[in-house]
Amino acid sequence: MSNSFKISDNELFYRLKAGDKVAYAEIYHRYKEFLFVFAYKKTNSEEEAKDLIHELFLTLWEKRTEIVITKELSAYLFWTLRNKIFDSFRHKTVTQKYIDSFSNYLIEHEADTDYLVRHNDLSKFIESEISALPAKMRQAFELSRKSNLTRKQIAAKLNLSEETVKSHIRRALLILKTKLGVVTFLYMFMKL
């Protein structure tokens, strides 16, 4: 387009609507620097300004048949670019809110996860110490603490006297208290 300076914006726009790529390129070269300065002043980012102008001209080409310009082509370009800048700001705000929300979620649930890991480790340790008890003692202890049976019920179930059941449970508690330590031992009773 050698006589591009002589062609008006209106003529370029009508050629663009007809699919004239040369007219499209002329519009781009005619306005890209002015649009860049406008976008850069609003965004303070050279990359973002270039991206917004790229989006603007991509939209201009893709929707060229749908676009209706009632005033000047330049006014349409600056108005559309301004809206893209506002959309970008809104998108950044939403993205930042999502990042903040997700960060807070991670911070809040990190403590829960840490607690759960420690709880599971401690539970495994307690269970391993209980399983290391002699068989009858372990059975009496588990029936007492896990099934909440009375000494009489345990004695009947294990075919032992109530005094033997009482002795097994007392000795099991003594062994576990020694092996687990006082804090863990108390934790075990809170759990059972």
Task: Provide an overview of this structure.
Helix 2 crosses helix 4 (73-131). The longest helix has 59 residues, at 73-131. The protein is rod-shaped. 82% of the residues lie in helices and 0% in strands. With 192 residues, the chain is an all-alpha fold.
Short account of what is shown:
The protein is mainly alpha-helical.
Instruction: Specify the biggest β-sheet.
Output: none
Percentage beta strand: under 5%
Instruction: Tell me, rounded to a whole number, the average pLDDT.
Output: 86
Structural category: mainly alpha
How many DSSP-defined strands? 0
- Low-confidence segments, given as residue ranges, are none
Distance between the termini: 87 Å
Element-level helix/strand string: HHHHHHH
Kindly state the percentage of residues in helix: over 70%
Rg (C-alpha, Å):
39 Å
Q: What are the main properties of this structure?
A:
192 residues, mainly alpha, 0% strand
Topology:
Blueprint: H1 9-17, H2 21-43, H3 46-62, H4 73-131, H5 135-145, H6 151-158, H7 162-191
